[in-house]
Every structure is written in structure tokens, then in C-alpha cells.
Amino acid sequence: MTVIVFGSINIDLVATAPRLPLPGETLLGHHFFKAAGGKGANQAVALAKLGIPTQIVGRVGAQGFGTELINSLQAAGVQTENVFMDETISSGVAIITVYDAGENQIIVIPGANGRVNQEDVTRVSRLLSGSSALLLQFEIPMFAVVAAAQVATEAGVTVILDPAPAQSDVPDELYPLVDIITPNEVEAGQLVGFPVSGQESAKKAAAQLLKKGVKNAIVKLGAQGVVCATSDETFFVPAFPVQAVDTTAAGDAFNGGLAAALSQGLSLHQAVVWGAAAGALAATKPGAQPSLPDRLAFDAFLKEKRVVSG
């Protein structure tokens, strides 16, 4: 079955440097490169590269990078018939600094992503028949996220929400529409109103998210692992140890691996392991979409780690 991704499509402008510059400082960096990105597009590419039929719904701008971004999605195997090209604005842009420890800081200019509207929600609704899941994020207007979650819920399609970038003013009505929510520590802290760092606080945050109405809560702890809470159990999946080069899109890779496993009928526990594996592999390469593993590399990694590959 097809998986639908409704979200942002960006061009990433990436600089690597030994550290972050201080305010007012000019710092010599190592390298610069340009790559396709955006949380929606990243998750769509993550799914497609794992062999899952994937449709993306979103917007790009004709004034900057639009055709390039659509071509990049198509090259990865993503179906782009429902990507609208806006003639009056530029595409979304993410300005990313990656420093030597492998961590990153990101500034996002929404561009065409900020113009996503009810017409795009209608495009989503037309694709729901025969789809197994809808993936959402917060790089498009919130009303569109809520509306898409509503139509997917009414259609009986699983809603997977990556609540990123972090926000503290998420509408209460969104939570009951979400089957699986996947914040990292910062995002979880914004959602529940207390700091999240490590397993114990992640378990408390996951429990709080269940109380808000989500059916399953997954809190991503980076190199520490993943906490998952359902109505029946709470469990922890350790991270796969890798040499991190760039964590950009590791969270998107996680959601792609998670959704890919679920679309193939694996359990939620197995799907969390798949997500952790995909995220770990993505962290070993620079860039967003260029770092996402294909099915051959992914299956080899699972075999090496003695994980069920479905």
C-alpha cells in the first residue's frame, strides 16, 4: 500500500565548520554543498529508498529551486503528481551549519511551504483510499496539519506525526487524531512543558502525550535510544552505535524506517527498531536526502545487527 507524506519541500544550503561562530564573529568553514531537503521531502525519500510506494503532497516555488526539487524527489522514486509549483514565491530554504562533532543548527525560511492550504488538504484526501499511513510534520501551516489528520482519521488511515520544528502551542484537537507521535527530546519538552533528557523523563513525557490523546508516543533520544509508550506497555530500544558525521535528517530517516516497517505488517516494536536503524545509518553521511539509506544498505545493516528485515 502507498504511504502519503504531507509536508515541506526545501533546498538545503549546508556549511561545515569546526564550531559555531560567536555573535559578530566571521568563522572560516570547511565545505559548502547544496542538497534537497525539507522534513516532508526527507521522509518521503526515506520511504521510497526503502522500497515503499510513496506519494508526497506539498508546494515548491518557481522562483527558486522548484524544478530541481521535484526532479530530485522523482529520482528517489517519490511520486510527485501532487506537488504544486507556486509561480509567485521561492521554494523553502534551510540554512544549515554542521560542526565537527556532527551536530547541526538549522534556520528554515518556509517560502512556498508557508502557502500550503485547503487545496493541498483536498489533494491528500483524494489519495487516502488504498493508503496505509499519512506522515505529517510542522514545517507547513498548523491548520493544514490538523485538517489532514482529520480526513485521514475519518478514512481509517494511520496518522504519524513528527512534531518538528518544536512548538509549545499545538492545538489540543490534534492529539486525538494522531496514531503515533515521534518527538525528539527538545520537541517532547515543548509539548509537555517540562525538560526531557534521558529515559526517565522521556517515559514521563510519553505518558503525558498519551493522556493528551495520542495512541502511541515515541520519544527519540538520539544516541541514547528510543522510548515508546502505548496503552499496554512502555519499552526502550537502544540506539545502534555508529560514528556520527551529520545528524541532519536522522529523525526523518527514523520516521521513514518506522513507517516502512508498519506498511509491511511488522509490529510497533519492530518498527521502532527499523526507525532506529535508519536514523543511525543516516547519521553516518553528510546532508539530508543524500544520507538516507537505500534498501540494500538498510537490509545489510539489519543483517549485520541481527535484526528481522521483514
Word description of this protein:
The chain has helices at 39-49, 66-75, 118-127, 142-154, 185-192, 199-212, 250-263, 268-282, 295-304, and strands at residues 2-6, 10-17, 31-37, 54-61, 79-86, 92-99, 104-109, 131-136, 158-161, 180-181, 216-220, 225-229, 234-238. It has 310 residues and is of the alpha/beta class. It has a single domain (2-20, 30-304), classed as UDP-N-acetylmuramoyl-L-alanine:D-glutamate ligase. The strands form 2 sheets. The chain has a 9-stranded mixed sheet, with helices on both faces. Strand 12 (225-229) and strand 13 (234-238) form a beta hairpin. Helix 3 (118-127) packs parallel to helix 4. The radius of gyration is 18 Å and the shape is globular. The model has no long low-confidence stretch (mean pLDDT 95).
Principal-axis shape: globular
CATH top-level class: Alpha Beta
Mean pLDDT: 95
Number of strands: 13
**Euclidean distance between termini CA atoms:** 15 Å
Rg (C-alpha, Å): 18 Å
Keywords:
310 residues, 4-stranded mixed beta sheet, 13 strands, 34% helix, UDP-N-acetylmuramoyl-L-alanine:D-glutamate ligase
